[in-house]
Specification:
Blueprint: H1 3-12, H2 36-50, H3 56-61, H4 65-74
Length: 76
């Protein structure tokens, strides 16, 4: 599992944010379009792409995209 691939998959879930704006250090909760629906999209993408189940707490405790990546990686 590569960080850049995870960032690309994360960015693909965001409809209104330019993918180039999403980096490892992006605080995704601060994205203008971030919502509970966005969180559900990310949870579904992680389940589908990486066969990892994220909980709401995982999403809440992660600050950056890289934090989320590390959480997913730790569950592999």
């Amino acid at each position: 599992m590569e960080l850049q691939e995870f960032i690309a998959n994360f960015a693909a879930q965001m409809d209104e944010t330019d993918p180039s704006e999403i980096t490892a250090s992006t605080a995704f909760h601060d994205l203008e379009e971030w919502s509970s629906l966005s969180a559900l999209s990310i949870i579904a993408m992680v389940d589908e792409e990486y066969d990892v189940t994220l909980r709401g707490d995982d999403m809440k405790n992660a600050v950056t995209v890289e934090d989320l990546f590390n959480t997913v990686k730790s569950k592999l």
